[in-house]
Amino acid sequence: MVTIDKTDRPGEIRTPVDPADQAGDAKLIFIGRARTPWNIREACPKNLREAREPGGFARIEVDPEWRPGLRDLEPGEAIIVLTWMNQARRDLLVQAPRHRESLAGVFSIRSPVRPNPIGLCVVRLLACDAEAGLLEVDALDCLDGTPILDIKPWRAGVDVPPDPTPR
Amino acid sequence: MVTIDKTDRPGEIRTPVDPADQAGDAKLIFIGRARTPWNIREACPKNLREAREPGGFARIEVDPEWRPGLRDLEPGEAIIVLTWMNQARRDLLVQAPRHRESLAGVFSIRSPVRPNPIGLCVVRLLACDAEAGLLEVDALDCLDGTPILDIKPWRAGVDVPPDPTPR
Predict the structure, then answer these.
(1) Which residues of chain A fall below pLDDT 50?
(2) Closest to A124 (Cβ–Cβ): which among B49, B110, B164?
(3) Pick from B78, B86, B88, B87: which is nearest to B151 by CA?
């Protein structure tokens, strides 16, 4: 069980009820876990750009029952990895993030602290051994052992927003 | 309760246990729902590009308890909307999607059918009434009423993959 620090900073606004204590509306299953060089939150890069700089390893281990689903993933392609940031609290609607001066609504920032702490990493697949359930990617900005929820191909045609529409 | 068709196509491979029947490793809460013109799966566009063509409305209704988190979202910016595709089955590892000739591993395609049916829409925010919990976006490719899990700002610096690394 992870112990989560719940000291609030000035101006922060909590949810009326902590989502972590609610019965929940749907259930996730973990399909594997991330392997990264970062074992404590303080050492974890704050985004993928920073994670790429030191050039540490980044791997995904997929559990045996899901490995047939790795078929057709090709090294070189870009993928989206969804993670479950299980060391993040879930009860802050307005936050004062470490790397920012002002308060911000949770849905306007990429903080791991959110009602559903789903992390999103757009990365390059470097190697894939489907049988062993091992994927090597160019970077991951999450803690070692972070549960993996999904892997999807990234598509420039839908995953880049269209130009702003004149209003 | 949604009734899900579970007829398999030739060559498809199921998970040993249906994830929908498992106790689950983590619990999601729904923060709101999508409002789209599509009420049945057959009418639903297969991706965001197709959803933009007819130009129908696309809105997100955020429930009252989460609305303080909408602060600082600005019309014109690009956002990532995560949805819970609750009408999709979860037990197919290798699939023969409707729009494709051959079989494919679930993690190599964007099918809504996946162990954790989390949908991802990169869209442009057109209007935001934080107090009323109403967001208007340029498109959503999900069914009307689809639960919303998260809203994040899209960032070109981290959400576009780096160029392929020479190997």
Answers:
(1) 166-167
(2) B164
(3) B78
